[in-house]
Amino acid sequence: MLSNKRNFCGGAFDNWREVMLYEKCNGICSWCIERHGYHPREHVPVEILISLLRQDEATHVILLGGEPCLYPQLHQLVEGIADIKEVYLTTNGTKFTMPFIIANLTGLAGINISIHHYDLSRNQAITGITLDEETLEWAIAICRHLGIHTRFNCNLIKNEIDSAQEIEAYIRWAKERGVDRVRFAELKNAEDQFVDLAALFPNQYGLNENPYIEGCNQDAVLWGMPVNFRQMCGLQTKKRPQPTNPKSVNVKSVLYYDGKYYPGWQSQRR
Questions:
Q1: Are the C-beta atoms of residues 107 and 78 closer than 8 Å to each other?
Q2: Rg from Cα positions in the chain
Q3: Is 197 exposed, middle or buried, given 0-12, 13-18 or 19+ CB atoms closer than 10 A?
Q4: How many CA within 13 A on the CB side of residue 105?
Q5: Helical ranges in 27-88 per DSSP H
Q6: By C-alpha distance, which of 68, 6, 10 is closest to 252?
Q7: Which CATH architecture does the domain made up of 24-263 adopt?
Q8: What is the pLDDT of residues 144-192, one digit of tens each?
Q9: Burial of 140: CB neighbours in 10 Å, binned 0-12, 13-18, 19+
Q10: Exposed (0-12), middle (13-18) or buried (19+): which is 245, by Cβ within 10 Å?
Q11: Which residues touch 125 (CB under 8 Å, ≥6 apart)?
C-alpha cells in the first residue's frame, strides 16, 4: 500500500535535504522524538558539511537538531551555502534575539520557531525555554527586514493547545507577534498527550482519520493566517489505523553532523 503522493513518505518534498546539525538541546520536551535518537560521536569540520551541501542536488536545506542554534559554526555554515540553496532552520527560540539573528542567520530563507503555547509561561513549563514577548517581537521584525520568513510551530498537546478555541487563540497571538505562518502538528508516539486534529475540525481543511492514504499535510487559512496542519498516520501513532503493507516511494536520506547520509532519521545507535 502506497501512501498519499503529497506525503513526505509518498514522494513529495524531493527537493528538500534535512540536516541533523547538532545533537544537543537545552529543551526538556517530554515527547521529543530525538531524545533517544541516533547521535554519532564524530563531528566533522563545518567545511566538510558545506562542501557536501553545495554538491547536494536538493535545492532546499533545513537545519535541525537537537537545537541547531547551539551549533558553534552556524554562521559559517549558513554563509557557506545560502548563495546556492534556500536554507531554513527550526529552533526552540533560545537564541532568537536580534544580535544573534544578524550575526548568525542572515541569508536564511526562513526560520521555524517551536512555541507550543501562546502563554509563554506555559511554553516554558513544556519546553524549559524562557522566551520574552518583546524580544520575540523585535526578532521577528528584524527577520522581516532581512527577508527571512518566520513560522511558529505548535505541537498540539493534551491540556495545552487542544481545542479549536485554543488554536484560534494561538493564531490571534501569532498574528500580533507578526509571523508569516503557523503550523499545528499532532504528536508522534505520545498517545497519552495526543490531540486529534480531525476531531477538532471534522470534515474541514482536508483533515482526516487516515492520513497515510488521504494526506498528512494540509494547508488552510484560519482567521486570516496561513496555517499548515500536520497529522500523524498509523505508522507514527497508535491512535490511527495501521496501514496494510505500507510502502514508501523512497526513503529520504538525512545528512548528519558526522558528514554521512543516513536513510531517514536513525532511531537507534549503530
A1: yes
A2: 18
A3: buried
A4: 33
A5: 46-55, 74-81
A6: 10
A7: Alpha-Beta Barrel (3.20)
A8: 999 999 999 999 999 999 999 999 999 999 999 999 999 999 999 999 9
A9: buried
A10: exposed
A11: none
DSSP string over 98-125: HHHIIIIITT-SEEEEE---SSHHHHHH
Among all chains, which residue has been given the C-alpha cell 495526543? 194
Look at residue 10 and give its three-state secondary structure: helix
Mean confidence (pLDDT) of the chain: 94
Q: Cell 495501521 belongs to which residue? A: 242
Enclosing H/E stretch for 127? helix 120-127
Which residue, chain included where needed, has cell 513529495? 12
Q: Which amino acid is at 68?
A: P
pLDDT band at 127 (very low <50, low <70, confident <90, very high): very high
Residue ranges covered by each domain of the chain: 24-263
DSSP 133-196: HHHHHHHHHHHHHHT-EEEEEEE--TTSS-SHHHHHHHHHHHHHHT-SEEEEEPPSS-GGG---
DSSP letter at 33?
T
Characterize the bridge pairing of strands 16-22 and 86-91: unpaired
Torsion of CA 38, 29, 88, 188, to 10 degrees: 70
pLDDT over 90, % of the chain: 85
- Sign of the Cα torsion 25, 36, 157, 111 reads positive
Name residues whose C-beta falls within 8 Å of residue 259's C-beta, 6 or more positions apart in sequence. 42, 44, 48, 49, 52
Is 251:263 a contact under the CB 8 Å cutoff?
A: yes
